[in-house]
Write a structure and sequence with these properties.
Elements: E1 4-9, E2 12-17, H1 37-50, E3 54-57, H2 64-72, E4 77-81, H3 85-97, E5 103-105, H4 109-115, E6 121-124, H5 134-138, E7 146-151, H6 154-157, H7 162-169, H8 179-197, E8 202-210, E9 213-220, E10 230-233, E11 236-240, H9 247-259, H10 265-277, E12 286-287, H11 299-308, E13 313-316, E14 319-325, H12 329-335
Parallel strand pairs: 3-4, 3-6, 4-5, 6-7
Antiparallel strand pairs: 1-2, 7-9, 8-9, 10-11, 12-14, 13-14
Helix pairs in contact: 1-2, 1-9, 9-10
Length: 336
């Protein structure tokens, strides 16, 4: 018998394994990470705006994302699945607790995908790398489908495990102040390459690197060739060098987050910062702590000075001391 406590997230009630008894790892009876609330908030916001009719939460654990997609985004048909029996039992209990109509499955991810039909939205949020699941997932996407992919193997994507990144993602990472943005771009590149094997063109519409995970939302689109924007950058790559965000989508998400009571302050703050940097479609950024200045100026003062001189400039969510700008390196250093 799993010892549980009841909590709430967004507008749903949830029974989770008692954190005083169970560690937050893959051995937990059902994985629930409170640090991923922003991850799930964003799923709800994107679903409310893009309005998929069918959704699959492939690795659902306690079912919290599926429950929120059903209750808060009002998706017509939601599937939730987890292969672990203890997680499935808790998933079913949470569905009953919230009195929602959700199709709950207790299958291995590959088996479920083989037997199901395609979905408008598939959420892939594994413990570790998404790589083993991608081929099966691609076969259940269609035109205009949304694919959300999480990677928590950030030590690999950020270059601390350099050779592992080359083996797993077929790209060279960076292990410096740019590593989170480069890791996101490598992840995008890899998912796009798998998609092309199934004649799917995947365009990123939202990207983030937060705490221990990276998260990308893709839309399957026509007349789009991602290969044109997959190249080396500096000594890293190949990686996606195109836009990381759909600016119009971000602005709608932020506007909705401000008005919504079910969205956390952390999510609103993240979306505000991303909404600013999304308007500057450059690759990379400058980090004030990396420039070895005798006196480091205030970040906001640098941004205001750049803007006063006619450049675009904003903070980046990839670094608390980073600035995205369309100024060249020489122009930026001269200004400092």
């Amino acid at each position: 018998m799993i010892k549980t406590i009841q909590i709430s997230e967004g507008f749903v009630k949830l029974k989770i394994p008692d954190p005083k008894k169970y560690k937050l790892d893959s051995k937990s009876p059902a994985f629930y990470n409170p640090a991923m609330i922003t991850n799930r908030d964003i799923s709800v916001l994107i679903a409310k705006i893009l309005k998929p009719k069918t959704a699959l939460d492939l690795l659902s654990a306690t079912g919290v994302r599926a429950l929120r997609l059903k209750k808060e985004a009002n998706i017509k048909e939601v599937w939730a699945n987890d292969a672990k029996k203890t997680a499935f039992a808790l998933l079913k209990e949470n569905v009953r607790l919230n009195k929602l109509n959700i199709k709950a499955g207790n299958d291995f991810a590959g088996d479920l995908l083989m037997e199901s039909r395609s979905f408008d939205y598939i959420d892939l949020d594994p413990f570790g790398t998404p790589v083993p699941f991608l081929d099966a997932v691609m076969q259940k996407l269609k035109q205009n489908s949304i694919l959300a992919v999480t990677a928590t193997d950030t030590t690999v994507l950020c270059g601390a495990e350099y050779k592992a990144c080359i083996r797993r993602y077929k790209a060279r990472p960076l292990h410096n102040y740019l590593m989170h943005e480069v890791g996101v771009r490598i992840l995008i590149k890899y998912v796009q390459e798998v998609g092309l094997n199934y004649k799917l063109s995947l365009k990123p519409v939202f990207s983030q690197s937060t705490r221990h995970y990276m998260r990308i939302y893709f839309k399957v689109v026509k007349n789009f060739n991602p290969l044109k924007q997959i190249k080396m950058w500096k000594e890293a790559g190949p990686m996606w060098l195109g836009s990381l965000w759909d600016v119009e989508l971000i602005e709608k998400m932020y506007g909705l987050a401000v008005k919504s009571k079910n969205i956390s302050d952390e999510t609103r703050n993240l979306l505000y910062r991303i909404a600013q940097e999304a308007k500057i479609p450059t690759v990379g950024f400058f980090d004030l702590t990396e420039l070895k200045l005798k006196q480091v100026p205030k970040l906001q003062k640098v941004i205001e000075t750049l803007q006063a001189k006619g450049y675009k400039a904003a903070r980046t969510h990839f670094s608390n001391t980073g600035i995205k700008t369309n100024a060249s390196e020489k122009e930026f250093k001269d200004l400092l």
